[in-house]
User: Fold this.
Amino acid sequence: MQDDSVAFFQLVAAISADFAMCAASEVDAVINDALARIGTFYCSDRSYIFLFSPDLATASNTHEWCAAGVPPQQANLQNLSSAELGHWFATWQVGNSTVITDVAALNHASHEYQLLASQGIKSLLMIPLRSNSRLIGMFGIDMVSKIQQWPDAEIAGLTLIAGNICGALLRKQAEVKAESLAFYDPVTGLANRHLMLDRIQQAQLQSNRNQFYVALLFIDVDDFKTLNDSLGFSKGDEVLKLIGQALQSVLPQGDTIGRFSADEFLVLSEMFTSERCKAVQAVTDIAARFQHAILDCPNLTAIRAKNTISIGCTLFIGGQQDTNALITQADLAMYQVKQAGGDALSFFDMELQHQADRRLILAHELRRALNENQFELFYQPQLVHPGLVLGAEVLLRWRHPEHGLLGPDAFIKFAEETGLIVEIGEYVLLHACKQLAIWQHSPGAARLELSVNISAKQLKQRNFSERVLDILQQTNIDPSVLKLELTESMLVEDFDNVVTIMQVLQAKGIRFALDDFGTGYSSLVYLKRLPLYQLKVDRSFVADLLTDENDQAIARMIILLGQTLGLEVMAEGVESVEQLKTLLHMGCYHYQGYYFSKPLPLNEFEAYVAKVSGAFLAP
Assistant:
């Protein structure tokens, strides 16, 4: 007996040492070896581990050793309800082991007896696996061939082994979780940016060796922002997960998919061909499978009726290019699809790269233009019948150090795309107010008004009204001589917020004009709620006023609408005396356009005011 005790504690020490030295990747093998050594020592029939689900609702047999001739039970013991474990489960939760020396001594009517006797078990020991008072599993030994006594010392030794098993499992779980966080996206479970960058580099090395094409696909979910805004971020995450699963379900074997950022995915596919035309066809086929998989996913259509993706692809051989450059190329190709309406595939070409380079240079030059005051305000006169100059619309020009004077067509659209329009718009507003402050001290110009165009991105800034009011305070101007021009399209996305901003600024004396009226989405309900001062008839209706009955009818309707609502109406783009006569006849008495003056630099505008102010324009 003494020899048995010594052998047992030597076994416990050896197993404990194995657990102490094993790496996380070796934990399962060390557990299986420990179960085999313990089972052999006791001449038992089975030794095993059960692990509970995080909510303790179910338990599954995860590790098992069986003696020769004993059929394994592991496959049959998965996702068992904890309720089936009866009072044993409650015993383990408080840290106590279950020791049954003789199953025959149990109440034969009990659930426990019937469960154990049906398997022919005569004795068993079950020790809870616990961490910080939290039950995570159970370590057990079954005896079928004999009744086993379980001395306290041996139970203590086996409890020590159970602790080693528990610690090893937790260490493995921690390392798996750390690896998952390091290399996998928590929302979709796909490879993350870090892992995708590594896989692209590996693909470049492989492509160097075999000289086969590799395709990198950049995938963006169409109109995802609208879904997020309307259904919420949790539903958005669910959609991303479903899209990832749909893409993965048709992904060619050996290819890699990952979530790059937000609603963007990367797919890396080895083409196994050195012929570009075949690689292009293979990518086209893959893209079609991706698109169909998403369109045909019932779980996605249950959330949103139509789900589409935009796909950009770059093909490369070898590792001559920087990894980030390859991603940028695929992104540029995807952006081409977006600009064309989405739901398609586009391949990168060098012209796209040239465009990207030009955009990078333009962004740098625009920032320098802001820092070095290269922008210049021009002023297009605004008049009221019979020819009095009320003020001007402020228009921006860029005095480029190399290319000379540039109009807004050369940079405004790009500034809007990149968000630079916010800084540029604030620059214009500040300098317009500074000019108004100068005029306030000049008797002949004190009541000149300036209209400043506000971009949609400016208006969406949380502190927009505060910034405007700061500029008013800084320049100390009379707010009534400042007019902010908005376009109809700016009202669509966040109408209530726009109204609030306008009301705050109107209360300080600032007036508002609705620009390009008649070309957008305004309704009478919008007009009724907006604190407007002026409607501007779009130049497209004025241009064909004399020849197109429809444009004439629209212009007349806008003028009548303005009169009905008590709004001032101004016509843009007046280029002839005939257009002016027609507008006056319709009841429009405010106007601007090339018939009177093109946009002028400051000194020429002031000279124009001095010359024209007070003159009578006889139509």
